[in-house]
Design a protein that fits this description.
The chain is an all-alpha fold. The protein has a domain at 8-31 and 66-225 and 374-579. Helix content is 54%, strand content 2%. The strands form two sheets. A three-stranded antiparallel β-sheet has the order 3-5-4, with helices on one face. The longest helix has 32 residues, at 533-564.
Amino acid sequence: MKNIKFTRERFALFAIILISAVLNFANLGIEGYGNSYYAAGVKSMLASFRNFFFVASDPGGFVSLDKPPLGFWIQAISAKIFGFSGWSILLPQALAGVISVVVLYYIVKRSFGKISALISALCLAITPVFVAASRNNTIDNLLVMTLLFACMFLSRAAEKGKFKYLLISLVLVGVGFNIKMLQAYMVIPAIYITYLISTAAPLKKRLKHLIVSTVVLVAVSLCWAFAVDMVPSSSRPFVGSSTNNTVMELIFGHNGLERLSSTNGGMGGGPGGNRQEGNRNSFRQNSSSSNTQNMPQNGNNPGGAMMQPPGGSSGTGGGQFQNGSSGENGGNQSQMPPGAGEGMGGAQGRGTGGPGGNGLSGNFGGQTEAGVTRLFSKNVLSDQIVWFLPLSIFGFIAAAIVEKLKFPFDSKKKLDLVMWILWLLPEFIYFSYTKGLFHQYYLTMMAPPIAALSGIGITYMWKLYRESGAKAWLLPAAFIVEGLVHLLMLSYFASSLPAAAKGAIIAAVTLCFASSALLIIYRLIKRDNLNVGKNINFAKALSVLALVGILVTPALGSSAAVVHGVNGSMPAAGLELLSNSSSGDFMRNSGGRNGSSSENKKLIEFLDSHVENERYALVVSSSNAGASMIIESGKSIMPLGGFSGSDKILTLNQFKEMVKKGEIRYVLTGGMGRDSQDIMSWVQKNGKLVPESQWKNTTSSGSSATEETGKAEGTNEISGTDEAANTSRSDGTNEDNNVENKNSWGNGFGGMGMNSQSLYDLKGTIK
C-alpha cells in the first residue's frame, strides 16, 4: 500500500469508475426482472443441469431461449449464488459495464496516454445506450466487455507480432459468439485487417497466424452449437426460433440473415422478428381486432413501455403493450420480450411513442429510413449513440494527420487507430443502412470505438490547435458540430422535456458554442504556435469548457435511467427516457409491485389445488405468455409456440398423445400462438371450459360498465382511438390513468392480458 501513489490521474480514473458504477448500479431495483422472457429462462435454468446446459426457456425444458448460452449461464450462476431476483440477474451486465470502462481506459492509455484514456473512459461511461444496456438482462454489454478484452490482446498481437496474443483475441471473439452469436463477429474486420497490416512479423507468418487462429475461432464459436445439435431432439428442448430444431439454423437464420435482409419487426422467432412472413401477417390480421382489445397495463409501472406502430397510432396491429411487473422485484419488468411489441406494430415507446412525445416510433431496419443520417434523424435511435459520433470522426482525422496514417503501419498508435476505426465504420454502415432486424440497444456495440476515438481525438486536435495553419481549426470545428448535433437532439424532445433539464442542456450547448467561438477568435489573434505561458493555459481552459459542454447532455440522459428505469424489452436511456418521464408520475413511482399479480396468483392457486401428476401444469400459447407466471411460481408451463407462438413444435397428433398419457391437462387459450391454432381449436372444441370464477380474479378487471362501454364503442380498451391517445400525450397526462379502472394490471401473461383468455380442462378428453 505504501508504494501506491494517489496521483491526479488515479483520482480521475477512480471518479470515472464511480460515475459508471452509480449509473449502472444505483437504484437497480426499479428495473425489476428486466426482460421477463430472459428472466423466466434463467429461473428455468436453475431447475436442472439439463435446463442450464440447453438454456431452456421454461422449467419443463420444452423449448430453449433463442440465444446462445454463455450470457445466461453467467446470469444463472449469479442467481444461484445470490438467490433468484431481479438484482441478481442484472448484476452481471451492470458489472460488465463498469469493467468495460476500465478496459477501454487501459487500451487507450497504452498507446495514447492518460488524458486520452480518461476522456475515452468518461465518454463510454455516460453514453446513454451503454448505460441502458448495463441496467438490463439483455446480454449485449457482456459481449461488449468480451470484445474489449479481445481488442486489448489484438493491440499487443499487432504490436509484437505474437501468435499467442492473436489466438487469445480470437478465442475471446469465439466466446463472444456464445454470448450473442454473429453479433460478436462485427469486430472481425478490425482484428483481421489490423493484424494483417502490422509489421512486427513477416507477412507469411502473419497469414499463418490468422489461418490457425481462424480455425480455433470457428471451433470455439460452434462448440456449443455442435454439442446441442448432436443430441437427439427427443432428449433436449426444441431450439427456440429455429425452423428445423437446430442451433445451426438459428445462427444463420433468425440470428443471421434475418438481421441483414428482413424488413419486418414481426412477431415470431424470438426477439426481433419472425422468420415466417405468412404467419406474421396472419397474426396481425387476426389479432388487431381481438387481442388489442384487452391489452394489459400496469398503472404503477415506471417502465410500462407502450409498443406502438410507426407513427404512434393505436390502430390495426398496433396495440399498446405495457410492461407489467411481478414477483418481489416487479418494478420495471417487461412482460413482452424483445420483438413481441414489434410484431404489433413495431416500436419502442415509453408512454409517448417516441421523441418529444409525438408518437414517433420505429426501431428496426425496415421501419426507419436507411441512410447515413438514420442515427441522427427523428426516430427512437437518435439520442442513444450519436452524442460523441462527430467528435470521434473529427478525432480520427486529426490523429491520422498527426500520425501520418499510411504504410508502413509500424507503430502501436497507427495500429490502434486502424483497430478503432475498423470497429466503428462497419457498425455505423450496418446500423445506418440495414433493413434487417435490430433493436436500439444493439447500438451499444458502437459505444467503445466512438468513445475511444473521441478521447484520442481531443488530444490530437489540441496538438494541431497549438500549431499554426488550417489544421488548427479542427478542434473548434469539432466542438461546434457537436453542439449542433446536441441542439438537433434537443429539438426532437424540447416539447416534452422537464424545464430544468431543458435549461441545463441549453446552458451546456451555449457553453460549448461560446468556448468554441473564443477558441476561433483566440487562434486568429495568436497566429503563432501556442507553446508556453498564459497563451496556452487560456486556450486549454476554453477547450476544457467546451468539452464539459458536450458531456452534460449525454450524462443527463444516462442519469435518467437511474431515476426512472429503462424499458425491460428494449432498454434505452437518453432524452427519450427523460422526456417521457415528465409526462406522468408513473415514471417516478419506480418501486413496482410487491408480490404476484392478483390474476396470476389466483390461477397459480387453482393449479396448486388441481394439478396432480401432469408433466406440465399449464399450456400457454407462447413463452412470453407464460414468462411472468414462471417467474412468480416456477411452475412447469409449456409455451406451445415458443417465444411468441410462431414455432411449430408439436403437431396436433403429438399434442393429443401427450394428453392421452396424462402429461397435459390444463390449457390457457388466447394470446399469440397463431402457428398452434389447430391445437388451440381442438382444445376449445373438446376441452371442458373452466369457469372464470375458479381461476380468474374478475374483480381486478375494474368496472364492468366501463369495459362494456369500451366494447360497445368498438374502441381499443387500452389505447382507445388514435385521437384519444394523441390527446393524452399532448396534454401531458399519464395514459395509465385513463385505463387503470379498465384493466388494473391485467397483464396476465406476457402482456396479452387475461380478459381474452380461457382455461380448458382436458382430463378424460382422450381415453
